[in-house]
Amino acid sequence: QVQLVEAGGGLVQAGGSLRLSCAASGRTISSYKMGWFRQAPGKEREFVAQITWGGGSTYANSVKGRFAISRDNAKNTVYLQMNSLKPEDTAVYYCAATQTGNYNYWGQGTQVTVSS
User: Fold this and answer.
1) What percent of the chain has pLDDT over 70?
2) Stretch 22-51: mean pLDDT, rounded?
3) What span, in angstroms and rounded, lies between the C-alpha atoms of 100 and 88?
4) Residue 15, Cβ neighbours under 10 Å: how many?
5) What pLDDT, on the 0 to 100 scale, is given for residue 8?
6) Does 105 score more than 90 pLDDT?
7) Element spanning 83, H or E
8) What pLDDT was estimated at residue 66?
9) pLDDT band at 1 (very low <50, low <70, confident <90, very high)
């Protein structure tokens, strides 16, 4: 099994940037598809971004062009670079992983708050 720990969340002004990291242990992430999800208060959890085994990435339309997901297999870490942040981006961000299709491994989450 793989364990996931997120870091890098915090308070930022609208228009600012944050870089989230997801450090994996127990297994090498090279064998996993990795993703980021977020959940705002009172809202459903939503997909943000994912990166596949070969390095291809997909994004939710709401973050396309502003966020970028990447992975560093040598460091066993996946990142989410968030630029041009908006108040609507405020949420708890979760790292997730799967070796197949549906995500079945989750981190504890890190809070991102964007002030206007």
Assistant:
1) 100
2) 96
3) 31
4) 11
5) 97
6) yes
7) none
8) 98
9) confident
The 3-state DSSP class for residue 25 equals strand
Q: CA–CA separation, 78 vs 60, rounded Å?
A: 17
CA-wise closest residue to 97 among 44, 27, 40? 27
pLDDT of residue 53: 86
Task: Pick the closest to residue 14 from 95, 82, 64 (CA basis).
Answer: 82
Strands 110-115 and 10-13, bridge-based pairing: parallel
CB 77 within 8 A of CB 71: yes
Using only C-alpha atoms, the chain has a radius of gyration, in whole angstroms, of: 13
Q: CA-CA distance, 57 to 92, in Å (whole number)?
A: 21
CB contact at 8 A, 115 and 96: no
Distance (Å, rounded) from C-alpha 114 to C-alpha 116?
A: 7
CA atoms of 58 and 10, how far apart (whole Å): 24
pLDDT over threshold 90, residue 101:
no
d(CA 6, CA 64): 21
